[in-house]
Design goal:
With 121 residues, the chain is α+β, with helices and mostly antiparallel strands. The chain has four helices and five strands; from the N terminus they run E-H-H-E-E-H-E-E-H. Strands 1-2-3-5-4 form a five-stranded antiparallel sheet, with helices on both faces. Helix 1 runs antiparallel to helix 2 and helix 2 crosses helix 3. The longest helix is centred in the middle third of the chain and has 18 residues.
């Protein structure tokens, strides 16, 4: 269930999907790493918020077919974050309770709010 983010509007809730992961990673990591990271997709959902002033926030919650699939995607997301997300933006990637969480926000405080609202530490 999406959380309330003060000053932001929830603009989309959907499934990212295996193909979405491949497209995202292909652009930055290359086809080989993209295929390895997205293969084993067991399901996901995401929420995206926007504040109308150019700031966005995003959370992806992913489950893999196996723990190894979760680890492969975690590694790819960390690599993606290093290469494609500006240093000043908030990024958090970790597995908890069998689910992989990827939180990205333009504003540090918003990223922290989303992370806390989902009970992530």
């Amino acid at each position: 269930r999406p959380v309330e983010v003060p000053g932001y509007e929830l603009i989309v809730t959907s499934t990212w999907g295996e193909q979405g992961l491949r497209l995202m990673f292909d652009q930055v990591l290359g086809e080989s790493e993209s295929l390895e990271a997205s293969d084993g997709w067991g399901g996901d959902y995401y929420h995206q918020w926007y504040d109308g002033r150019g700031n966005a926030a995003f959370v992806l919650v992913y489950v893999g077919d196996t723990p190894q699939d979760v680890e492969e995607l975690r590694t790819a997301l960390l690599d993606y974050q290093r290469r494609a997300v500006a240093e000043e933006h908030y990024v958090w990637v970790d597995e908890q309770g069998g689910y992989l969480h990827f939180v990205v926000a333009h504003e540090q405080s918003v990223g922290e709010l989303i992370k806390a609202a989902y009970g992530l530490d």
